[in-house]
Amino acid sequence: MSRATNQPQIVILDPISLEAVDKLRKSFEVVDLSSRQRAEQLQALATADCIIVRSRTKVNRELFDGAPKLKVVARAGVGLDNVDTKEAESRSIRVLSTPHAPTTSVAELVLGFMIALARGIGKGDRGIRNGRWLKSELEGSELFGKVLGVIGYGRIGSAVGKLGSCLEMRPLGWDILGPKVVTAPATYTEVNDMLGQADFITLHVPLTDETRRMVNARFLGKMKKTAYIVNASRGEVVDEDALYDALKNGTIAGAALDVFASEPYTGRLRELDNVILTPHVGASTQEAQRRSASDLAEQIERWFEGSR
Description:
By secondary structure, the chain is an alpha/beta fold. It has helices at residues 18-25, 38-43, 61-65, 85-90, 103-119, 121-129, 155-166, 191-195, 217-221, 240-249, 286-307; strands spanning 9-12, 29-32, 50-53, 72-75, 94-97, 147-151, 170-174, 187-188, 200-203, 228-231, 254-257, 275-277. Strand 9, helix 9 and strand 10 form a beta-alpha-beta unit.
């Protein structure tokens, strides 16, 4: 791709808000390839100074090799699982992200999941669509007074804890950083102790060697049979086969997943009525996308201004 101007070139590989794109165009040459396939995107990176991605694009050695001028990887969102940060560091490429932007959106989705699970909303909806009136089967429960276990008490986990407390749930919190980060309204509780108490478990941990498949058969077997689990963090944190068995056998009451080990998800959990599945939409609100893109645009501008 030839350069149209002498301005730094930003290549957009995943969709971001148009407001942020317009803002960036004032100071940069912006090339939007978000609707193109990866092979075509890779061919166009030879002159890129900065790329913007969300969770879809894998920023790995293959991409870096095709972008010799790359100075900045800008990730609109929280996690950096799709970015090889070690490879970026070895090439002196700066990685930017917007961890605060989706907090409210993800926390509200988790709250919605808990209400939907407790009241059987998904099952009731499917029943009506299939000509079945399941009123007698759908005696649910309130969130009021229930124990909420939050595993990972960072930005999103703590927001979930606060929302739960507004409904007079009793939040318990655990975090790898220990009791110092678990603040009111939650009470710090070790995971093993939490599993036997919580009516709802919600996961908000990064994907690491320690958290990969932390939700396995043993973990699920320690939960209450009436309990529910929600995952809006990273798909690989949950052993999906073990979860399938636990849901089918009544080891736990239900689950809601917004993330999966492989996406788009096509696995066996789709067969079950006591699980809610959504296509990784935790941060997919207009507000979160605007915040994320705007924040990222400001970070990019500051970085290039400072590097001149």
